[in-house]
Model the fold of this input.
Amino acid sequence: MIVVAGILLGISGASIGKQIARDRVNRSASVVQGMLTEASTLAFRRHAPVRIVLSGNSLRIIDRATSAVIRQKDFGPGFDLRATLAISPSGGVTVFPNGRADASVRVSVSGQDLSLVVSRTATGIVRRQ
Done:
């Protein structure tokens, strides 16, 4: 009986670990999606362009004129959001007060067994794929 319980616990432990890793990537993608949406709102409220950039492990919304950080979320080992990010274009994009951007942006969010892409078109449509 104890052996059977040990085997079941071992099998379920591995699948629980995979599910936790997938949940972390999903949660990180949701945060990225929220930040891409929030950039338009911040540009509109501030009546000034903002930039979305990836600096190291931090996704940032910064003031275009002063480079002051307005919002920042940290990703990777040691942080609550443990996914790895990559952004294209690598220099980020500028979002203007009218909601448009100078280019579309794609943020790849990846973890152990899952990779998602969150994108924002130049016209402001945010999608998660």
In short: Helices lie at 2-46.
